[in-house]
Write a structure and sequence with these properties.
Layout: H1 7-21, H2 27-41, H3 50-59, H4 62-73, H5 90-106, H6 122-141, H7 145-177, H8 182-201
Helix pairs in contact: 1-2, 1-6, 1-8, 2-3, 3-8, 6-7, 7-8
């Protein structure tokens, strides 16, 4: 795995770490999450939650993390991991899914992600943020200012219209529900800080999507978030 130096590369690594952390756990995803957390921990000013994330990964088995994942996000989810579960109006739910799919299709981001999931799954949205950061880095390296500006604008729109509206409620709910799970508690704290800093740096003010009081279980489909 190649990690490009620079502050936005650090952001891409952080989004990728969070994407893997909230994907269904496997030996591969947990191993890569540990690697990425280790890369970020070597920064001059690493996020203060990283030691807790690393300790939680290293002290738990993949089976333990998978059991916690199922408890939090499975069929009888304590915390719905889908943006649609934070939208009350079913018509707007459909529009949000279509809008998300449009973001992904515009970049050909429809395959080879960490898990086959709905486009509004937390792992898919975080993976897309990581992907946009890498595209922005590539444009900057090629001195393509127009492309860099466009990718940055799309990232801002994605945060404003989607990730920034529901992830704060999702991450707060994970932190509140994951007391027996050091990994997800630490991951939620890391994600909350990263998201808040990103919204602030881009000067984005989002209209929040509160979690529904009685969320419905949503079945997975075959969307790949790459």
């Amino acid at each position: 795995m190649t990690v490009v130096a620079g502050p936005r590369a650090d952001t891409a690594v952080l989004w990728r770490l969070l994407s893997l952390g909230f994907a269904p756990p496997s030996e591969e995803t947990v191993a890569e999450a540990e690697l990425l957390a280790g890369v970020l921990a070597e920064l001059d000013d690493p996020p203060p939650e990283l030691p807790d994330v690393l300790d939680a990964i290293r002290s738990a088995t993949v089976e333990r993390i998978a059991a916690d994942y199922e408890t939090l996000f499975g069929v009888l989810a304590r915390v719905p991991p889908y943006e649609g579960s934070y939208e009350v109006d079913p018509i707007r739910q459909g529009r949000r899914l279509a809008d998300l799919a449009g973001f992904y299709r515009a970049f050909g981001a429809e395959a080879h992600g960490p898990a086959a999931e709905r486009p509004d799954h937390v792992g898919c949205e975080l993976e897309f943020l990581a992907f946009l950061e890498l595209r922005h880095l590539a444009a900057v390296a090629e001195r393509d200012d127009a492309s860099a500006a466009l990718v940055h604008e799309i990232g801002t729109a994605f945060l404003r219209d989607h990730a920034g509206r529901w992830l704060p409620a999702f991450l707060a709910a994970v932190a509140a529900a994951s007391t027996p799970s050091p990994f997800y508690r630490a991951l939620a704290a890391l994600g909350a800080r990263a998201l808040a800093r990103e919204l602030e740096s881009r000067e984005i003010e989002c209209e929040p999507l509160p979690r529904r009081s009685a969320p419905r279980t949503v079945e997975r489909d075959s969307f790949d978030c790459g």
